[in-house]
What we know:
280 residues; alpha/beta; 4-stranded parallel sheet; 4-stranded antiparallel sheet; disordered C terminus
Amino acid sequence: GSFKTFTALDLAVCVATGQKWLDFPTKAGAVLIVDEESGTQRMLRRLGDCLRGHFLTDADIWFSSLSGFNFFTESAPEWANRLRLAIQGLNVKLVVIDALVDIMLTGDENRVSDVQLVLYTLRGIADQLGASILLLHHTNKNGAYRGSSALRGAVDLLLTVEAKDKLLTFSTDKARDIEPVNFAARCHFAQGQFWLSSEVASNSYAQALSKSERYVLEYLQDSARTVDDIMSHASCCSEGAARAAVYRLSEKGLIKRMDGGGRGEAALYGLAGGVEVVAL
């Protein structure tokens, strides 16, 4: 329920196209998704939503779905070799594995030796081929990562994500060689599209407005506008940033939908009552 898969797919799209992910720069490269949870049809649908959320129809993203990858079995070396060959053959820079429990089917995630064996294999692949591996995992009832403490010891970065409504809060449980970072993102679902936008972790609406939010407020000062109109006139930010700003401002109560938005009719957004635009 914390949108982990959608978050990973949004990141995959950004890495594959060299776009910023939230406020973090990326280095462009092919992405490989090892999906052992969603299945082909759900993965295609979700990946399509994320591509359309970034105004794309294609990207250098590859995936296998329910292929039976298992790094805790007698044939683990064969599975590891398959992953190496895929990374090398596709020149992959980011591998997303969803999820840990599904690639160690006969192992016990609570046993140190079992978890160490799987993560040692993955660390070796990452180190040998220079690809980053993002491993999705589940939390326990207390909100901490589930299973053996060996998990925390083996990874370079351990992030915990919590969801409240559609606000995601990311906190650092462990960071190796970098400063810990906490950040937040807002999930957006709209007409077969999904994307994330940056948020302040406190979700305080008294926060300083972003450049794109200031643009939207200023543009709506005289009259209500459609989202397409707001996006097409954005000069100080990208169209995607302007669109995300519309939904953030709406959630903050600074703008609201007006008389549009019926079936087949574009929604109009205008300033909410009592909002003044000053010195933008």
